[in-house]
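Let us practice reading a record.
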Amino acid sequence: MGVQRALLQLPRPLNYTVQKIAKPVRSFFQSAYRLREIVKENAKLETQVFQLQNRQVLYDQYALENEQLKEELQFMKSSKLDLMPCTVIGRNPTGIIDTITLNCGSTEGAQIGKAVSSKGFLVGKINYVGSGFSTAQLITNANFFVDARISQSGQPALVRGSFNSGLVLEQVAQNEPLEKGMLIVTGGVNNKVPRNLLIGEVGEIFSGPNDLFKKAALLSPIDFGALEFVFLVK
């Protein structure tokens, strides 16, 4: 009250000058306060957005896994093979060795050399077995090979991995027909890998008419880097 009275008693020009100076100062502090409140509100909104994004990511992941599991279980119901569902619990982070770790071990019937499939296609073979887990070498591994045959003709062949870049079909007799789109299945020579398990379809043919055997790229519909659920073929 004393300050206000003093201000009122000031000469009018001086009073006007003081008010003119005080007004922007008061406006500055009000603006600073509002700015702090806006910053706090923005931080709160960013946190809420982050939480919602995390929930969306989890939802998308669960939905994707549920869809993948549904597809695998549908195949399991229609298959005549003795299949043990397994979850991929680890993979080689470099992608060079092309192996995956499964939660199926000796207790679940895993044995070295047994086939591993996904959606009806061969994806690898067991190469190590523990009591509660096992590892499988993927068919894309450069050291992988399996006896095969052309589904349409029954002609025997060999499938090899190709340095993490895919699959190669080899050892097809030169006088046998080989065209893009032909299906390649397992040959069944190895009793740990059942006969007629799909491997892929013929892509680009590499060999020429003067080569002793025909050779071609083999295409699999499986995304080997995204495997979440597979089957151990018992």
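A brief commentary: Confidence is low (pLDDT under 50) at residues 1-8.
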